[in-house]
Amino acid sequence: MDVETVRQRPRVEGGREEEILDATVAVVAELGYDRLTMDAVATAAKASKATLYRRWSTKAELVVDAISRAKGCPMPEQVDTGSLRGDLIAMSCGDGGFMDEVPMSVMAGLFTALQHDAELKRAVQERFLAPRLGLVTEVYQRAVRRGEIAPDVDIELITTTLPAVIIYHAFVLGIEPTDDLILRVIDNVILPAARGSQAS
């Protein structure tokens, strides 16, 4: 099933959809993706399985929709503070950023499943990661247009560097992300790399 087909599935009326998405986030954080079932989400959301299946045909669709749109893990808003540093800070800190407890706990529950579940991996890449990377890419491209960073910088690589470092600290080293850590990565890794030959 392609992304456009998923988008066209009927929505749940009223505020019930948000309640179901919130319940899904909570169940993923508690049980992990592999142990999550539609029954568990239906119970947590006080909804019927029929309601869930009318909107989401698989648990992969439900989970990705939940982490993409539920409270605590929103799509970050496009920002333009006038500087690359300001934009990165605005997008990386606060609600929906790396300091948000819900996204990190949810991603912890998904990491193992992403290694062996092709459907989940594809859905996460298309529905969750792609739009967010698109926003970050625009931030860097705008910085290039302003002449703030070198035009030959590998934007595709650098857009993934900050989240990669934060995820490594959180899930490999067991160090909780903080604003200080994010600022250190931005100031000591991202900005020097983004300036490229202009830094000399």
Automatic annotation (TrEMBL):
<dbReference type="InterPro" id="IPR001647">
    <property type="entry name" value="HTH_TetR"/>
</dbReference>
<dbReference type="InterPro" id="IPR023772">
    <property type="entry name" value="DNA-bd_HTH_TetR-type_CS"/>
</dbReference>
<keyword id="KW-0238">DNA-binding</keyword>
<dbReference type="InterPro" id="IPR050109">
    <property type="entry name" value="HTH-type_TetR-like_transc_reg"/>
</dbReference>
<dbReference type="Pfam" id="PF16859">
    <property type="entry name" value="TetR_C_11"/>
</dbReference>
<feature type="domain" description="HTH tetR-type">
    <location>
        <begin position="14"/>
        <end position="74"/>
    </location>
</feature>
<dbReference type="InterPro" id="IPR036271">
    <property type="entry name" value="Tet_transcr_reg_TetR-rel_C_sf"/>
</dbReference>
<keyword id="KW-0804">Transcription</keyword>
<dbReference type="InterPro" id="IPR011075">
    <property type="entry name" value="TetR_C"/>
</dbReference>
<keyword id="KW-0805">Transcription regulation</keyword>
<protein>
    <submittedName>
        <fullName>TetR family transcriptional regulator</fullName>
    </submittedName>
</protein>
<dbReference type="Pfam" id="PF00440">
    <property type="entry name" value="TetR_N"/>
</dbReference>
<dbReference type="GO" id="GO:0003700">
    <property type="term" value="F:DNA-binding transcription factor activity"/>
</dbReference>
<dbReference type="GO" id="GO:0000976">
    <property type="term" value="F:transcription cis-regulatory region binding"/>
</dbReference>
<dbReference type="InterPro" id="IPR009057">
    <property type="entry name" value="Homeodomain-like_sf"/>
</dbReference>
<feature type="DNA-binding region" description="H-T-H motif">
    <location>
        <begin position="37"/>
        <end position="56"/>
    </location>
</feature>
